[in-house]
Amino acid sequence: MFPKWDERGSARLVHDQEQHWAEMRAANRGRPRAYRRLLTAVAAVLRRSAARDLARLGQAGAEAEDVVQETLLAIHVKRHTWDETRPFVPWVRAIARYKLLDFVRRRGNGVEVPVESLAETLPAATEDPERRIAVGECLDCLPARQREVVLALAVEGASVAETAQRLNASHGAVRVALHRGLASLGARFGRWLG
Amino acid sequence: VRTEELIAELAAAPPLRRRPLAPLLGLAVAGGAALVLLVLLTAMTRSPHLAHPGATIAVTVMAALALAVSAFRLALSLARPAGGAHHGPLLAPAALILAAGIAAELARTPPDAWLARLVGGSPFGCLLSVALLSLPVLAAALAVLRRDAAPRPREAGAAAGLLAAGVTAALYVVHCPEESLLFVALWHGAAALLVAALGGVIGARLLRW
């Protein structure tokens, strides 16, 4: 095929693509140096496009290299799906697009907002919401009596005498329930943290 | 892993073993079809129309094979990145053949018989049979497509479903006791859509890469 001479840029592009085409054919016939050259060139292009596309999709650009590596791996594993009579670059583009969207989807469907901008817009949290949820969940899994005692003493700040009177139990029973409840909470909370 | 190391590792891999997609898919479909035919011949009654095959059997087989061929090509083009540039009119050949056959049947039969011919003897049994018998072909086609790289797994799976239904509907004339293209178009058509939907659902999971 003759290069197009109407524009220098497009002639260059056509030349590059022809080069890739030939290198990939060589690679498929077991020429590691041609393959390596090709993958390195493709990686450079992918690196730019991945960073740009991730930014456009609201993802952190720091993950661009992960996308590049996944795409290179897919090119390698799926190289039998390239028809040697068809252009190479559209095939690579389709793989890169699939892998990028796959990556974004696996990250969760939502848009990931960078942490720095969150810190600027939100006031400082007074308590760790995650920890509060965890304690709530742990309280729920205590037996009813222990939960009541722990809530009254440790959360509401009532005295042992008041709690014993309210729950119609002896002082000793309240102390035992508190002790067991806190021990159980400690075990569960520790496991949750670990 | 640094990208340079990954590239070095990939480049050191042994050369590609040629695995052309089309023959492999064809082989898988043929294997599935052989199994379906075996079930039809051994476990199900023979169609009474088989001894003197008329227009119904001929048109059914032609339309079903046309669907299978279209779906085969579609599945192949959907199985490779940047492969789906031109799909062409997917259902058109099968639909045209079927429409011509139905027109001839309507001209040949009185209008008050049309509804009875459309509903036939056991429409849901027929629908279920075609759908269930399609499953081996569908499984074989999906197993092959899984090795490829469908950019849109759901569509590729649905194409495999149409392929399986087309092959099965062509073979099903061996058993089908009905003798109306109205019946075939409606109930086998519904079965094909069902299998295509199933293929789409399975493909969306199985054909990811």
CA distance, first residue to last residue of chain B: 20 Å
How many β-strands of chain A, per DSSP? 0
Q: Any low-confidence stretches of chain B, pLDDT <50, length ≥5?
A: none
Q: Give Rg of chain B in angstroms.
A: 20 Å
Give a concise summary.
The complex is a heterodimer of chains A (194) and B (209). Chain A has 9 helices and no strands.
Commentary on this structure:
- The complex is a heterodimer of chains A (194) and B (209).
- Chain A is mostly helical and 194 residues long.
- Helix content of chain A is 73%, strand content 0%.
- Chain A is built from nine helices and no strands.
- The radius of gyration of chain A is 31 Å and the shape is rod-shaped.
- Mean pLDDT of chain A is 72; it is low at 1-11 and 112-129.
- By secondary structure, chain B is mostly helical.
- In chain B, 71% of the residues lie in helices and 0% in strands.
- Chain B has eight helices and no strands.
- In chain B, helix 6 (123-145) packs across helix 7 and helix 7 (153-172) packs antiparallel against helix 8.
- Chain B is elongated and about 75 Å long.
- The relative contact order of chain B is 0.18.
- The mean pLDDT of chain B is 91.
- Chain A binds chain B through residues 27-30, 32-33, 35-36, 39-40, 43, 65, 68-69, 72-74, 76-83, 86-87, 90-95, 97-98, 102, and chain B through 1, 3-4, 6-8, 10-19, 21, 79-83, 147-149, 151, 208-209.
